[in-house]
Amino acid sequence: MCPPLSEPVIVPVKDKAPVQHPLPLAFVHGQALLEKPEDLYIPPDALEVILESFEGPLDLLLYLIRKQKFDIATLPILQITRQYMEYVELMTDLRLELAGEYLLMAAILAEIKSRVLLPRREDATEDEEDPRAELIRRLREYEAIKEAAQELDVLPRQERDYFLSSAMPSDNCQPIRILPTVTLQELVLSFQEVLKRASAFEHHHIKREALSTRERMSRILERLRMDEFVAFGSLFDVQEGRAGVVVTFLAVLELVKESLIDLVQAQPFADIHVKAKSAVEES
């Protein structure tokens, strides 16, 4: 009998985290180009050309030609033209202005290559400009215009980033002004300022008639009948001394307690004003 076969031994293999490699930007003469040049802008929907010696964005191809890293004489212009026409059909409803930019590029490439391949004229001088220099000049102009267009596109644009409103306010619309409430602390601080001014006039004591809080309340209400708003500090007569100031202050507090007057401010920390309470507000 044959000995029984041993069970296969399964050796656990540690999981290896997948390594994500960056996708190449283009292939130039079979070599992958991973990083984009810092001084080159490639639109998101750039035209991708697939040639024997180059595969990638047309913007990068023009960049390499301008940097003299790619021979324009080896470019198959016919293939670029065919791929451009397919690109135009695809981008008609998306970004037609970008297709127009690439039309200019393809036309420049065709012109420059024809001037490179055609034999030179017999009467041509040695100082005649190299066709590649003309391409470089035009590409630099194109890049400058494209950078300016990008800067303008960032600026706010009417009907895209903001819209004008033609609504007119109603004639019956009245602004509602909400006055800040007067706190007890602000009232006390204002009263202290009046006391300071009153103490400056107390040089000698003169016997005066007894001051009445009710009489002072009537005087304040009488003044409010003539003026809608009265400054809080103007209610006090510092020449009456501390006694007159205290009586006036008590009269103001009593009027507020009886809901006959209101203390208001135009804005926080502004001067306090006194106004008579209307019948509508009392209700």
Automatic annotation (TrEMBL):
The keyword Cell division applies. GO terms for cellular component: cytoplasm. One of its GO terms (biological process) is chromosome segregation. Belongs to the ScpA family. Participates in chromosomal partition during cell division. May act via the formation of a condensin-like complex containing Smc and ScpB that pull DNA away from mid-cell into both cell halves. It comes from the Bacteria. This is Segregation and condensation protein A. Its main location: cytoplasm. It comes from Bowmanella dokdonensis. Pfam families: SMC_ScpA. Signal peptide: none annotated. Keywords: Cell cycle, Cell division, Chromosome partition, Cytoplasm. Component of a cohesin-like complex composed of ScpA, ScpB and the Smc homodimer, in which ScpA and ScpB bind to the head domain of Smc. The presence of the three proteins is required for the association of the complex with DNA. It is found in: Cytoplasm. InterPro entries: ScpA, ScpA-like_C. The gene is scpA. HAMAP family: ScpA (MF_01805).
